[in-house]
Design brief:
Layout: H1 11-45, E1 51-55, E2 58-65, E3 70-74, H2 82-85, E4 97-101, H3 119-132, E5 139-143, H4 145-156, E6 163-167, H5 189-197, H6 200-216, H7 237-257, E7 268-273, H8 281-291, E8 296-300, H9 306-309, H10 311-326
Helix pairs in contact: 3-4, 4-7, 5-7
Length: 327
């Protein structure tokens, strides 16, 4: 083969390539700036509500209200404290001590530098929070992915928790991520970091209304969910990256956890909305309850966001489990 040593890229080609590279760089920088600004705006509209506690290098943000038997509440994917304080907590505050915590990377909690806790590690952190606050056999409430974290906490600290109340929980491995969260499915750490800091936040803002309708369906989305319910805090680079990691870690963690559900020796109740469009009630509710001695499964009319849309039903179920704990 003959090589033409005199051939060189034309100056025009090099110029076009350089301009294209500059354009990509400018677009990426612009998206990063927009993402940061959207995140700051969310924090201005939804400031931190509680206090902070250091546990093994993780800085956890939590609200601690009321007195009486303790209830610890753990939110789901992309959620935070206000998912519970929107409506459910006010039905319980006069009777119980409520500790509502942001999971690491969500809300205002931060993981230890250089780490990203998976589901089981988050469960261990919840168990350590119980120890740190000197809670006596609290009821742990987990909504959605927070249900998996609550189950992980019970497996990590046998005998330390009084019971579990799981609200529309993720509790079994899934072959497919729910459609509304597939845009968050990223296997590599580099991809999660790049997407969350550039395209992810602006795209999330553009699609937030239809996504929320799917998450809440068939229940309506409250007009003030973004602020009073804390929904705006999901649209920040760090929160988006944490949600991506939760999705990536969930399957392996649940594969390891589900064979151990039979070890659980505490009252467990599972509440699902019949119309839930994210998680299958029979798979994540009935099957899991059947794997746990004395597990209770209940279906009501409603969708996935039960703590926001059906707080009275949630409070009723929590009280039943608390009565079982006190026997």
């Amino acid at each position: 083969m003959t090589v033409d040593r005199n051939h060189r890229p034309s100056p025009n080609w090099l110029k076009r390539a350089g301009l294209a590279a500059l354009g990509v760089g400018a677009t990426t920088a612009g998206l990063a700036v927009a993402s940061a600004l959207i995140g700051r705006d969310a924090e201005r509209k939804v400031p931190a509500d509680g206090t902070f506690i250091e546990i093994e290098g993780n800085r956890l943000h939590y609200v601690d209200r009321g007195a009486g038997p303790a209830i610890v509440m753990v939110h789901g994917l992309g959620g935070q404290i206000r998912n519970f304080t929107y409506a459910l907590s006010e039905l319980l505050e006069g009777e119980y001590r409520l500790i509502v915590v942001d999971r690491p990377g969500s809300g205002y909690s931060k993981a230890r530098a250089g780490t990203t806790p998976d589901i089981r590690a988050q469960g261990r952190l919840v168990a350590r929070l119980v120890d740190k606050l000197k809670l006596d056999k609290p009821l742990v409430v987990g909504h959605s992915l927070g249900g998996a974290v609550a189950l992980a906490a019970a497996l990590a600290a046998p005998g330390r928790l009084g019971g579990l109340s799981l609200l529309a929980p993720l509790s079994q491995p899934m072959d497919q991520v729910p459609e509304v969260f597939r845009q968050l499915q990223r296997d590599s750490a580099l991809s999660r970091k790049l997407v969350s800091r550039t395209l992810g936040v602006p795209l999330g803002r553009l699609t937030s209304k239809p996504n929320l309708r799917m998450i809440f369906a068939p229940d309506p989305v409250p007009d003030d969910f973004g602020t009073r319910g804390g929904g705006l805090l999901a649209l920040r680079p760090a929160a988006l990256e944490a949600a991506m990691y939760d999705i990536a870690a969930a399957r392996d963690d649940l594969d390891a956890m589900t064979p151990r559900y039979a070890e659980l020796a505490l009252p467990v109740s599972i509440l699902f909305g019949r119309g839930d469009r994210l998680l299958q009630p029979e798979l994540h509710g009935r099957r899991t309850a059947d794997m746990i001695a004395g597990g209770v499964f209940e279906l009501i009319e409603g969708g996935h966001m039960l703590p926001v849309t059906h707080p009275a039903d949630c409070a009723r179920v929590l009280r039943v489990v608390l009565a079982r704990i006190r026997r």
